[in-house]
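agent> Task received from the user: take the single chain below, predict its 3D structure, and emit structure tokens. No templates, no multimer pairing.
agent> Plan: (1) validate residues, (2) run structure prediction, (3) serialize to tokens, (4) report one or two observations.
agent> Step 1 OK, no nonstandard residues flagged.
tool_call: predict_structure(input=
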Amino acid sequence: MGQVKLFVVCILLLSSHLTWAGSGKTNILLITADDLGYEAVGSLTLDAGLPSLTPNIDRYAAKGYQFTNAHVNTPICQPSRSIIATGRYGITSGMMGFFHMKKRSASVMQTLSDNGYLTGVLGKVSHSTPDLAYKWDYMHDYGDLGAGRSPEKYYNYSKEFFELSKKEHKAFYFMVNSHDPHRGFHDPKNPKKQAATPSKLFTTDQVIVPKYLPDTPQVRTELSHYYNSVRRLDDTFARVIQALDESGLAENTMVVFLSDNGSAFPFAKANTYLASTKTPWIVQWPAGKINTEYVNKTDFISSIDFFPTVLDAVGLPIPDEVDGRSILPLLKGQKQTDRHEVYTQVDYKIGGPATPMRAVQDERFGYIFNPWSKAGANYRNSNEGDITKALKASGNKEQLARLKMFRERVVEEFYDLKKDPHSVNNLINHPEYQKIIQEYQKRLVNWMEKNSDPVLALYQVKEQPDKMAKLLKKEFPSKAELTPKQQRLAIEEKKRKKKQKKSKGV
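)
tool_result: status=success, residues=506
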């Protein structure tokens, strides 16, 4: 009798395993970098002589499918990640800054969870979870991950998650978010506590200064520290892929790698320049029979396309509310129409008033509209380091003019991205470009109309600066309008506790 029971148990266990293994469900592994500029990635860099910052990512990319015209739609951490999760522009979802979901919307993690997937996340948890009500099955954040900068810890937790997936006989959605190369960068003289030492360190002599920054000692120092952090990101990427390979699950796993926005320097992250939004986008999926060792240099894709692509890959319907389109046909070597441009936006940063920016870019040109711009404006963000201080203290006429441009901007910008990818020479008033500028303005207006963009009303009065400023202040959605109640209460409680500690002298 005991042998019969043992035989039945073995059959049931084997049957369970076969059901899971043979279900055909595709696993999804999304690996993101935090503030990785496209210029630092070997396969995308514009700069000859750049040292090898991402050897593991480059090797992996060479075997998979790469896009050279991939972008994020909002080049700031949390709003960017909200778009990745929902496939919706910030203006259509309401997540136009560091806001969670106020009006419920489909998300990649909830949809896959509802369909039997095990969901896990490493790092950047709050910023990567647009719906405050959503609970991940597996989660480790900043403190568990060596300040989000320990390749070994990412490896160990990835290994644990893959084993959990096999134990529970579930396909998985696993979002692995490195905190590199976000500031603070790795300074060898003052390393971040708990963070690992990168596998290679770089000197100021090895730095290639992008043309949107001045070549100064301060810039070179910060870039060298940034390079160190990029290399540690590459170390982390390699360890996560190692854990996947060792799990035996790589064959039926779609792996996607991208950054949430450009590098944390002035004129990159939290703006709408090419350096702000262009991202590496790499895909590998052995069982998916996608093109490999292929570089797509033609089609423009963006972060709104991630969610519908995942649903397409796993065989689930794509909600009508999604703004993006699946890129699965491209991955399989098919053609898609209307892949020649990308639309990007900025609304709210951390702190301060709204600074809406809208842009349309294609392979040749980029047009930007900045309705907040005015003389005396003081645009700031958390990506400046000590660079802007050094510019101000320099007394150099060119550097002071560049700082003024950063702080005040101009209402409209237009760049020839073929000749000027670093967006230094604004052609908006150049007589030879007026006809083509009108074409790009029309494209942006059509996009704003289609998506009910509140910036459209500002654009319509762009020749009347005073009226535009009043409309921005009066009509543009406020933080209070965009923040869900649960998040608002949490912010108020945090402020209350901070005030209480201050009054007690803690």
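agent> Step 4: summary for the user.
The longest strand covers residues 27-33.
agent> Done.
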